[in-house]
Fold these 2 entries.
Entry 1:
Amino acid sequence: MLESNHVTKKYRRKAANDDLTFSIEPGHIYGLLGPNGSGKSTWMKIASGLIVPDRGEVTLDGVRAGRQTKAHTVYMATEDYFFNYMKIRDVRRYYEDFFDDFETPMFLKQLEEMEFDEDTKVASLSSGMMAKLKIAVTMSRRARVYLLDEPFNGIDLLARDTVVKTILERMSDDSAIIISSHLIEELEKIVDTCIFLKDGRLILMGEIEEIRQQQGCSLIELYKKLYA
Amino acid sequence: MEFDNHKPIYMQVIEDITRKMVTGELPPGEKLPSVRDLALAYAINPNTASRVYREMEQMELSFTRRGLGTFITEDREVYDEIRAKMVRECLSTFVRGMHTLGYTDTDEMAALLRDYKEKTEAGADSDTSKEEE
């Protein structure tokens, strides 16, 4: 469904992405793993059409990532991107206006579960609450590809559980979810396939239950083996 | 549920379900949650959850009724087998532990076990008698 073909992107002379080739299939949750600076965010931005690679391309059902694929791709950046003056209600209206696939009932259900009040100002949210709000708006869109960049960064255990649940609830047979993280423990249970990047290159891709069975090691141990 | 990340997750979920069968939480013929709900309940990948049911069916621990979902086996013998297997596992852990401590004689182990049980039960009794006073 989503194909990364020889994607290469250089910043000055350093390659952030170096000949990345792999494919993403619907019905799976992928973990995009690697230490800081291994090229995870760069690839996500290319896959969502925000930046253009120097060489190669990412295509969604054969269409090059860009304006045409944006309607079917959701990208959740690591940084917080709501305007400070907004209330949660404004965030909802903003998404309703911008995205045809935004499902308001789904979003409202999430807000209720997260015990959010729509009158709350975005600027007053704690980092855990912000992470929850971000995942709620992101997963309330019905897209084919969800690109989540470090959704577990800087949040507590309880907020993490909520984020995990929200992601799992949206999982379906016709869409793919890709989660980047350098916190592997968070991903052990929810990811079925992992993609390991190192210095912008693909070093391993595989199903994690197979890896566990074949190598008898956890994702964390594999991570240490690959990057030590 | 806490997972051991060294073992396949689907196996650990199956172990948890069989434990629930033996403790009576899941009686024979009980309906199991949908794949989706199982995934949410254990906070695991839905593909792992569907593998749980696939493997369970192959192991004849469960069966599917078309359009109705997945059910725990109605076969009492399967329950007996699981219980027997769990007993074997407990015993093997115990015996291995005792071996590393130098006990090899079964009678000696049995005596220690009897002694231990008497002491802990006596302890439990004295606690309740205190409450009664």
Note: The first strand of chain B starts at residue 62 and ends at 65.
Entry 2:
Amino acid sequence: MEKILQVKDLELSFHTFGGEVKAIRGVNFDLYKGETLAIVGESGSGKSVTTKSIMRLLPEATSEFKNGEILFGGRDLTKLSDKEMQKIRGKDISMIFQDPMTSLNPTMPIGRQITEPILKHQKIGKDEAKKVAIDLLRLVGMPKPELRMKQYPHQFSGGQRQRIVIAIALACNPQILIADEPTTALDVTIQAQILELMKDLQKKIDTSIIFITHDLGVVANVADRVAVMYGGKIVEIGTVDEIFYNPQHPYTWGLLSSMPSMDAEDAKLYAIPGTPPDLLDPPKGDAFALRSEYAMKIDMEQPPPFFKVSDTHMAATWLLHPEAPAVEPPEMVIERMKKFPGSRYYEGSAN
Amino acid sequence: MARYIGKRLIYMFITLALIATFTFFLMKILPGSPIASADKLSPEQRAVVEARYGLDQPLPVQYFDYMFGLLKGDLGISINQFKGANVTDVILSRMGPSAQIGFQGMLLGTVLGILFGMVAALRQNTWVDYGSTIVAIIGISIPSFVFASMLQYWLGLKWDLFPVALWKDGFMSSVLPSIALAMFPLATAARFIRTEMIEVLGSDYITLAKAKGASGSEIAFKHAFRNALIPLITVLGPMAVSILTGSLVVEQIFAIPGIGEQFVKSIMVNDFSIIMGTTIFFSVFLIVVILIVDILYGVIDPRIRLSGGKS
């Protein structure tokens, strides 16, 4: 499969009054053409910062690339000038934001907000751009698009606004669409509609999607592959089945265990104990070790390298080291692993 | 919209009636008489003069006479300042210079203020930003008469660029008073625009505009500026007031034959009809400014487009 974006050894810091916050500490992943890669993790794990750094949307005065590269179309995005970045933003890579209530300009008619990137990146006239915008609105399921072009954001509901934001993002048929928690601010029924819409659109225009979320239910619904982030690093990456049914990293176990389940017998919801690490002074070993009941001595001393689980599946945990003692994952994870061919708990095909 | 303006006009009318009533009785409470050298006149002479201006009538009669005159647009006649001249004519003949320096001052102040504020916000925490903040603080804290005297001394006397206090050279004469009047609106606009631009530039829709590929100047002018203007409109009203009150002092200092100068003198000589007329004129002006400000809100911010109540 064709790699459309490669993030290599990316390290990024924020300069704050308190000191240097190492928000991204060596992130590696590839994005393939036409796939949806979900990045999951709790608040502060670096998932939003990673994608914003791809778009170079972080404040330049306070953020700094320390190492690594972001390769797109043969160019390293970390080294491009502002002018060159402007030509890529909205055209080749575009973004959908978390809160549709605040991400549209309140004093500009939505028609102009949609035609803006079209006029900017494509050599077409205003009337033509308007037609494209109306088609886009129709594509994202907005009724009577011609009439709504002149209306302002406050005249739309939250779900409709997110459809408009999606229309803006798709205006120039981007190769990569970054969706930063696009459904978090919406209520559940609208969430489902927006997710369906995104899946639909991806088939139609064949774009690659990076989907950031902390909602594993959403991940299972939309993603082809999943990257789990913790403490500014990816700790596990694999296909959606591998992450859900054969997880290897204790943090992924924790995440899966803290998913509410319909058929859980006791109603208690599991929560991962402790708090995320302070990235002003990141731990030198495995960042999750202090919260992990599976932590070993080496976890406190050395950061684990990536261990290959399969061709598509990697996890950064010392538990995968050949000399590590075998441990029992949480019961709930074992239940999942039983369904996964190739896992050590596999019980044969049930069907 | 028409209905809204209609409603506002009725309110304006009520406001004016209240202001007229209040001013009328306030003046009647004041000691002193509008009749020049009243104590030198014999009681008979005094009675004749008072009868001519209706001052011998009981207070309620005087009041209703005045209010009915007002309804007809009659502001009465000047008692002593412009002996017998129609107050409306006096005000109209004096309006030109005041309107000129007021308009020039307001325009200069807001345009420069917006510019300073924008540049300060876009170059936050640089010397440009600090410089504009200092200008804003000076503009707000130095009273216009001090500033006016400084202008007279440096630009008028020392460098001889503009007349010091002479209303004869047309535009050249209006430059110094306009600058003196512009300081307060300039400072206010600069502060408001800076704060608001910084906030707007940090908002989500600016990030989205950036994500569309908009350049720095497109973001500042196409997206941020209009949103940052909204709070400035709120202070346009008070700014108009500051121009008015400023003009009372500034016109005195620069010897400008405007309404302000004439208003101050009318108070000194107790000319009831001129004081009343000018107060009402200023009130109408301010009320209209406030109405315009409210309409402007809707033009700039679509979320508060005015509708005629429930439709």
Note: The domain at 87-304 of chain B is CATH 1.10.3720.10 (MetI-like fold).
